[in-house]
Amino acid sequence: MPGLSLSDENANNGSFDLICSMFAHSPVFRIALLGLASLMVGCRSEPPSFDMNLVFAHKLEIHGDDLNEAVRDARPVLEQYFGTPDKPKIPEVLESDDKYAELMSLDNLQRAAGAVASDRTGTDFGLYRKHCSTCHGITGDGAGPASSLLNPYPRDFRMGVFKFKSTRYGSKPTTDDLIRTLRNGLPGTSMPSFALYSDEDLQALAEYIIYLTIRGEVERAMYRDAVTELGYGDPDQSDEDRFLVAELKQSDPEAYAQQLAAMDDYIVAAADRWVLAESNRVSIAQPPEKVPAWPLAPDATADERAEMEASILRGKALFHGKVANCSVCHGESGKGDGQVNDYDDWTKEWTMRNGLDPRDPEKREAVRTYLALGAHRPRNILPRNMQAGAFRGGDQPEDIYRRIVQGIDGTPMPAVNLVPTPGTSGLTSGDVWDIVHYVLSLSQPNGTPSSWEM
Amino acid sequence: MSVEVPDVIQSDEASPSNWVHRLAVILVCLTWPLIWVGGLVTTYDAGMAVPDWPATYGYNMFLYPWTTWLLGPFDLLIEHGHRLLASLVGIITIGMLIAAYATPWPQWIRRLCVVALVGVIFQGALGGARVVLDARLVAMIHGCFGPAFFVFICIIAGVTSRWYRVLKVDGCSNQAIRVAASLAVFSYLQLSIGAQLRHLPVEASAGFFRHIVYTHLTGAVLVAILAAISAWKFRGCGDMTLSRVGVLLVGLVTLQWSLGVGTWLVNYGWPWSLDAWPTLARYVIIAKGWHESLIVTAHMATGSLIVAVASWSWLRAARGRQVYEFEHKRSADNALAS
Fold first, then answer.
1. What is the reported pLDDT for A207?
2. Is the CB of B289 inside 8 Å of chain A's CB atoms?
C-alpha cells in the first residue's frame, strides 16, 4: 500500500498545517484572541487609593451647595492624616494619646493593609485585600467589585454603624464584637466565617475596620462642615475657609493652626466614640428564676417543661401584643412577612431621608445620579424570618435578648423600653426572656409552640 | 464507509521511538496536577508566599530544606510545591525535545516540541514575573497560559500517538469539526473570563465584575450547547472513541456547571433569600475552608480539562477528516489512472 512517508513534504506539511490551522487560521481562534485582548483592557496597575464618599457629599448639596471642591480638597488632607491603602497611617492626635492605643496599632494596620503576601512563618499580610475588599471595597464603602451582586449588600463602614454588637443602641461595637462577627460569619449572607484564622489576624482585621470607619466618619464630618461652617460653594471663599491649606502655615500661622485643630477635632470625635464602646456594653438580666434556661435539657423535669411552655406562650402573646408589637414587621407567624417595604439606614440616608422615594417614578433620574456616584440600587430590608432560625447576630438566647433590648442599629428594628415592673409603657426583662423563648421556639422542627414537644 | 488509511510514519522509514509520545503523556499527567496546585495557590492567595524568584527565600529552589517546605505554612507548601512541579514539567519537556531530535520524528513534530519548550519557559517566566512584580495582571496571564500549555501538550500526545497514524474512520463532517473547534476555543475563552474573576484587580468596579460574571454565565450556556452538539455530531463520525469523548465532554460540562454554582456559593453565598430552606438559610461560608477551596480549584481545573478534551477531540475529528479526504482523493486518482 503506497502511503505517506516522512520524506513526503505534502504529508509533513499536511499534518503541520492541520495543527496550524487548528490554532492559527481558525476564525474562531481569532475572535477568541480579540476577546482576550479586550478583557485585559479593564486592568489597572496604579497603586490603589481610597475612594471619596461622593454619595454623602452629593446628598449634602441639597441647598445648591457645590461640594466638588470640598471633595477635591478633602482627598489630600485625608491622605495626609490616614495614608493610603498600601501605607496606612494613624493620625498624630491619636498616636500621641494612650487612650487610643488599644483601638489600633500601626503594626496591625500595616499587616491588614497593602498587597497580599505571607512570610515563611506563615504570617499573612494584606489581610483586608485578601479577605474583605472584593465585597467591602478598598475604602470600606461596601461597594467592592462583587458588592452589587450580593444580597444583602456588604456593609459600608464609613457611616460608623454596625448591626451586630454587644453595646447600646447607637453605640459603636467593641473590638471583640467585630472579631466575633469575623469569627462566626453571618449565616445566610456573603459574610464568611474566618474561624480558620488566628486571633492575631482577626485582631488586625478588626483594627483595620475601625481605622476605615474613623477615616470615613472624618470625611463625612468634613463635608458637613463644608456646608455648615466653611465656605465651600461660595465664589468668594478664602483659604481660611478650607479644610487645610499648607500655604497658610507661612502666611497665616494662626488660621493654619485653627485648621489643624478642626481636623484633630473631627478625628478625636470619631475615635472617642470607639473608645467609649467598652463602657456601653449591655448587661443582660438573668431570666426569672422559675423559668429554666434555653434549651431544655433532655432530662428536664415536667415542671421545667411546663414553665418553659408557659414562658413561650407568654412570649407569643407579647410578640403579637401592642407593646412589643413584633408581629407588625416579623409577621403573624414570625416568617418575616410583615413590614417588607422599609429600607436600612445606609439606603435611607440618601433616599427617604433625602426626599427621594426610590419607588416614585418622578425621582428615578435623581436616584440614577446617586447610583452613578456609587450608591447601591435600593433594596428593601426584610425582617428576620424567625422560623428559618438564621439569626445573624448570634442564635444564643443572650444574643436574641440583646437584639430585643437594644434593637439593631441601622435597621428598622427598634430598642424596647425596659421597665422594672409590668405595664403598658415597656417590657420587663422577664417579658423579654419570654419573647426570646417564643422566638427560639419558632425555628424548632415541630413548628409553632402549641405543637412544640418539650 | 471503510477507507484505507495512510500510515504516515511506517511506510518508507523506520518507526521512530515512541519516547516522545510517552514523555508527552507523562507531561499531560503532570501538567493537570500542576494546574491544580497552581489553582490552589490562587485560591489561597499564596502567590506571594515566597517573595523571591527563581530562588526560594534565598535558597536555590531545588536545595530549599524539604522539612521547612513540607512542615512549614500551607501557603509556602503549595507555592514552593508549584515551583518544583513546574520545574519537573520543564525538565521533562526538555527530555521530550531531545527524544524528538534523537529519533526519526518528522520535522513538524520536532517543531511542536520546540514550541512546547518555549511555552514552558515562557510560563515559568510569567510565574516569576508575577512574583517579582507582584502583579495580579501577570498572575492572570500566567493562569490563562498554563491551560494553553496543557492543551498543547495534549495535542503533542495526540499527534505522536498510534491512533494518529492508523486512524480508520468514516470521517467527521466539516460541521462536526467546526463545532469541536468552537467548543475548544470558546471553552478556553470561558476559562480566561473565569480567570478575570479569580484575579480581580483591587480597584475593579462593580460594573466590571457584573459584566464579567454575566459574560461568564453566558459563556457557560454557550459551552454547554456546543458540548451537546459536539457529542451529537461525533456520533456520526464512525469513531467510537470520539463518540465516547463526546459523552465525556457533556459529563465534564455538567460537572463544571455544578462546580461553578458551588464556587459562587462558597465565595459569595446565596444571591437570594433561602428562608424556605432553613438549613440553607443557616449556611455560613467558611473563608478559605479546605472543602470550599477544593470546589473553587476543581472548577478551574475542570475548565482546563474541558479545553484539553475539546481540543483533543477537535484534533481527532480533523485528523479523521484529513485521512478520509486523502483516501478519497487517492481512490479518485487511482480510478482516473486505471
1. 98
2. yes
Q: What is the CA radius of gyration of chain B?
A: 23
A139 contacts on B by Cβ (under 8 Å): none
Q: What are phi and psi of B220, to 5 degrees?
A: -65, -40
Beta strands per DSSP E along A81-206: 117-118, 124-125
pLDDT digits (tens, 9 = 90+) for B88-123: 999 999 999 999 999 989 999 999 999 999 999 999
The residue ranges of DSSP E strands in chain B, in sequence order, are: none
Q: Are A108 and A203 in contact (CB under 8 A)?
A: yes
Residue A192, chain B, CB below 8 Å: the answer is yes
Phi, psi dihedrals of residue A163, rounded to the nearest 5°: -80, -45
For A:287-346, CB contacts with B below 8 A are: 335-336
Contact between B230 and B249 under an 8 Å Cβ cutoff? The reply is yes
**Nearest chain A alpha carbon to B6:** A3
Chain B contact set for A36 (CB, 8 A): 144, 189, 192
Pairing assessment for the beta strands A117-118 and A124-125 based on DSSP bridges: antiparallel
Least Cα distance to A334 among A212, A451, A440 occurs for: A440
Task: Sort out which chain A residues have CB atoms less than 8 A from B269's CB and list them.
Answer: 150, 188-191
Angle between helices A429-442 and A302-320 (to 10 degrees): 100
Output the DSSP codes for A289-334.
TTSPPSSPPTT--HHHHHHHHHHHHHHHHHHHSTTT-THHHH-TTS
What separation, in Å, do the N-terminal and C-terminal C-alpha atoms of chain B show?
A: 22
Between positions 44 and 83 of B, the ones with CB within 8 A of A are 45-51, 57, 68, 72-76
A149, B209: Cβ pair inside 8 Å?
Answer: yes
- Measured in whole angstroms, how far is the alpha carbon of residue A302 from the centre of its chain? 45
What's phi and psi for B21, nearest 5 deg?
A: -65, -45
pTM for this entry: 0.89
CA-to-CA distance for A7 and A4, rounded, in angstroms?
Answer: 8
pLDDT digits (tens, 9 = 90+) for A84-107: 999 999 999 999 999 999 999 999
Q: How confident is the model at residue A6 (pLDDT cuts 50, 70, 90)?
A: very low
3-state helix, strand, coil in chain A (%, to 5): 50, 0, 45
Cα A160 from chain centroid (whole Å): 9
Q: B294-332: per-residue pLDDT in tens?
A: 999 999 999 999 999 999 999 999 998 888 888 888 888
User: How many beta-carbon contacts under 8 Å exist across A and B?
Assistant: 227
Rounded Cα gap, residues A424 and A410, in angstroms: 26
Sign of the torsion angle spanned by Cα atoms B246, B251, B256, B257: positive
CB count, 10 Å around CB of B32?
A: 17
A376 phi, psi to nearest 5 deg = -85, 150
Substitution target in A21, A25, A28 with the highest count of B β-carbons within 10 Å is A28
**Which residues 181-200 of B have a C-beta within 8 angstroms of A?**
181-182, 185-186, 188-189, 192-193, 196, 200
Q: What pLDDT score does A3 carry? A: 35
Indicate the range of A186-195, A296-305, A373-382 predicted with least confidence.
A296-305
